[in-house]
Every structure is written in C-alpha cells, then in structure tokens.
Amino acid sequence: MTGTSNTSDNEEVFEDIEIEAKFVANRIKYLIDSKFQIYDNKNKEFRKIEPKDIVILLRSTKNKASIYEKEIQNQNINVYSDTSTEYLETYEIRVIMDLLKIIDNPYQDLPLVHVMRSPIGMFTDDDLLEIRLADKTDDFYTAMLKSKISVQKNLKFKIDTFLRKVENWRELNNRLGLDELIWTIYEDTGFLNYVALMPNGEFRVANLKILFERAKQYETASFKGLFNFILFMEKVKTGNGDLGAAKLISENENVVRIMSIHKSKGLEFPVVFLSGTGSSFNMMDLNQDILLHQNLGIGAKYIDYDMQIKYDTISKLALREKLLEENISEEMRVLYVALTRAKEKLIITGIKNEFEEANAKMQELVDIYKKENGKINPILLKKYKKYIDWILLVYLYNKQNANEIMKINIVKKDEVLKDNNKEEKEEINVFEILEEKSKSITEEELQDLKKKLEFNYQFKELNLIPSKDSVTNIANLVTGNKSENMQKKLQVTKQKKQYDLPKLENIEEEITPAKRGTILHLCMKKLDFSKDYDLELVKQLIKDLRANSIITEKEAESINPYDIYKFTKSNIFKDLRQAKEYHKEEPFYINIPANEVMNVSFRENILVQGIIDLYFIDKDDKLILLDYKTDFAKPGDEEILIERHKPQLMLYKQALENGLNRKVDKVVIYSTSLAKEIIIEK
Fold it and tell me: Phi and psi for 677 in degrees, rounded to 5?
C-alpha cells in the first residue's frame, strides 16, 4: 500500500488528485521500464509487464479519470478511460463545438480565441496580443477586423485566410445539413488527421466521427439548425448526462485502463492500482430534511414556523442511523470488489494529511475498542469513512499478519513532484568568471558584456503592480505611510516566503479578539430586519446559529448578546426596518489606477475586489451604505475609527455608485464597541 502525505515546503500548488495521479503515472512508468515480471496464463510462462496488464480503479471516474489519463499520457504510455462524462470536455470536441459557435455568431470572444489558437486558426499568443492592441475595448472579432489596417503583412494574411474560411462555412450552413457542414469542416481543416497523430489519436478520431453521427441524428428530429444544436449540446453538458465517448477498446488493446470499481466487477488484471482511497464516502443524502427507507418509511425534520427553527425528529435520527449502516455495508462490498481484482500485485494509493499524527490517534482508538476476536469495532467503521482509513484499521488490528501481505510506504508530495520541477541552476558569479577569463578577451568586449548584464528594465515597476487585490490591502496602502509601504512593496528579495500553518485544533480552541469580532459580524448579518428584537430573540438567534452548526459552542459563548441587542435598538436599525429594499454581503469588483494608491508613475489599473456589508434604500428613497465595525474603541475615538476605515468605505462607495449608477447619500459605520452609528460622509 502506498500513500502520499502533504508538505508545505513546495511552492507550487497542486490539487491532491493531481499529486496522486502523478504518483500513479510515475509508478506505472517504473513498472514498465524495470520490466516487471508477470505470469502469462495463456503461454504458461513469465514475461515483462505491458500497459494492458495494468488497470486503475476509482470509486467514481467523474472529474478524475481525465486527470489520471493526462498524467499517464505525459509518460508516453497509451491509456484509455471508459467514462461517458468527459466526452464534451475532450480537446477535439471543444475545438469543433467552439468553431460551430463562431460560425453561428462570431461575436463570442472565448470560442473565437480558442479556435484561433487551435490548429484550425494557427494564431500564436503574440498574434492575439497584436490583434487586441488594435482595439482594447471592443469584442475580439471587431478588434480583428480593425487590426487588418495596422498589423504586419504575415498576420494580415493569416487573419484574411481565417475570416475567409469562417465566412465560407457560414454560407455553407445555409445550404447544407448540419452533419454535412461538420464533415466539410473536417475535410477543409484536416482536423481529423491532426488529432489522429495526438496521444490516443484513434479514440479522438472516433469522438469526432460520433459528433458527426450525433449531428446527423439531430437533423432527423423536429428541431433543426446550428443554433438549436449548439443549445442542445450545452444543455447536455450542464445536465446530468452526456452523449458518451467512443468505445473502441478491445480486450487485446495495449493500453492502461481507467475504470470505476463497479465496472471492474467480474474482471481480473495482473496489476491493479486502487486509487483515490483518501476521498470520503458520499453521505450527502443523509443530510436531507426528509429521509426515505423502503422498510422503515419516512423520517423528517420538525419545523417550528413561529420560532423559525427546525431540528431532527427521533424518526429521522433512526432512519439516518439505519441508512448510514446500509451505506457503510455497501462501501464494504465495493471495497471487497476492488481488492479482489488483482491477480499478482495490488497497489493502493490515497492522500492522507498529517499521516503520522492521524495514525497515532487511530492506534489509540484501536487499543481502546479492540475486540478479543480481532474484528474491527463498528464504532470505528462509522467514525472513519474513507477506504484508506479502513485499510489502515485492518493493518493496526493485526500488524503481525498484515506485514506478511502488505507494505505501507509514505511518500511526501515534494518527492512526487521533484521529477516535474525544473532542475535548480547553480548560482554563479558571472563577473568573477569574466575577470578570470579577462586575459583572453579585450577590455572593450568585457565592458560591453557587463553593460548588457547590468541592463535595467525601465518598466520594472509594472511587474510589481498587482493585477488584482483586495479592498483591505488597497485601503492599507492609503492609510499607512505611503513611502514606507512602497519601499516594502517595491523591495525585490531572493528569500522564499515561509508560512507556518497552525493546527486546526488550536484554531478551534482559541477565540481571539479578531475571531470574536468575525463571529459577532456574522450574527449581525443574520438579523431579520422585519423583526422587533428583544434580548431573548437575540439569544435565540445565537442558539439557532449554534444548532445549525454555523458557529461552534465556544464561539456562541464568546458573543455578548447585548452588543447585537443594542444595534437592534439603534436609529439605523429603525431605518432598516422601514427600508424599501436592502442588500447584504454584496460582492463587487472595481478598477483603481495604481498611481492613486501606490507610489508609482503608471496609471495601470488594479482590479480591486471586496464585499459590502449592507446597503439599503430608506423610506425617503435615499441610498445608505452601512458597514459593521467590531474593533475596540472607547468614547471619543470616533475620529480614529473614521480615519482608519474611511479609505475602505470610499472604495465601497465608488463601487456602489458605479454599479447602481446613482449617488450614495450617506456612508455610515456602526461601531459595536461604542454601540453607535458614525456618519463618515453625508
């Protein structure tokens, strides 16, 4: 058994599934390169392993199989994934579907650029950049038409050729059937031949032929036309099903297979990778408000409309327990199927964070719940809901016998990625080398080379301007010492950033003032402005948040209900109760010129994002912007709060005025510490 463990040392961020897929692909490559020997039942002799002897089993192939497929292809190993959910996401289908979209309507930037970058358009990134520079504001198709005046001759020829092809296909669309149009595109572009030369080319060609057949079938239905076909395919893509990829695989095809555990039932393979065992079982159905059981009937939550709360009934809890047991039993059966597919070698992989600590804790529980007959206590099976944990439980229950048939390897993430990382180059002092070799070159050549190496890029400030930032960071630049901030911002350092992540249990135990403020902020966000709150209703609100697991018990205890109660008796809350409309937690984006907030000369825009606590239209049709502030303040600190938070709220105001196309009449802070509203701008 092989597992991978997290590490924070690697700077490049990879998703867990990518890490595991890379590991599996590397291991398959090693088995093939090392000529791992397997027994051939047909010829009754040992032979070296081939791709067709290997299968990767996943509990679910959806959104996973394509990642494993890609990593194995990167090792130049043929692979086949028998899944029907990835068809419309394959490269070849996306290119043709995007081409059909721009034939129907060329004023669609993403499909247009995708086709232009593909072998059909053959435009480079530099070409696309030059076209965009011709017109930075209009859609890309219009920019391309305008660019023909200013671009170089080669690019102009490329644009004319592409537009001529698209226009020709648009004309054919009016005269040919949809299937005929698609086949004409295949012939005009040579796209079938191109994808045939790609990895898994046979399957890609088959997928394109299936698209042609689907279009032919669609033309025989009542709906016709390119637009309706595109709409139909989009609905299929966003719905529950898919059309299904081509299935050309036979028993003797020499490819690594990727399939679900269910589909492997009744099959056997010399080498099996059981992967994705670190994923939790899908128990979402158990959290529904209403549960159904074929024998026990219905169990539902009880809803108290007067108190505005709901909670589980005894019948629902009983059904949930029964369904949990049945789900666990089903997962056991599925795991049994997976474990019995291998004839010679079974490799189990899974991601497990903090393996050593989790393993030690599991060992303690095993010692507590261990039965005399050696069987695993059902309590532990309900606690641990991952295949990798179940397998570790078996190992810990009977280590002596388990060591004879299985071996556990812990592989760190950086070990998996080291083959993918670029080799670090040795740092050298170029000028020292030049000095040593100065005898063999002239002084003029030496000075010329030094001049080139010491070249200073005049626009280097642009590299330090973020393209996107948060309101908080931008506001800090405004309120802080600007020159000092900019010195820190513009410093170029060779040191790597180090991040010490606290353990989750420490986060849960400690309620810091900052966290207490966040919790109080959350409670105020949950207030119902239609209610006339008293202290008991405020306390009930906190209890409801705890009952629904929105906050923890300790977080609930940290809240002073009087802080919320005082807000409900404030003038601003009275205005909210009479408001014509109000909006909570509204996200926004706004462009801010960099030279307005940073000590730079360029006016490049920074995309600033944030969330507005609350804005509302009062009874007099005035637009009010309100922001809750929970930081500590004492009487007389109003001006300090205004100075501290005004830059942030002015950004909120600007974003709101731009978005609603009207003036903000009043900007207000409500300080929970002072229990009063502070008007920043009227």
Answer: -95, 140
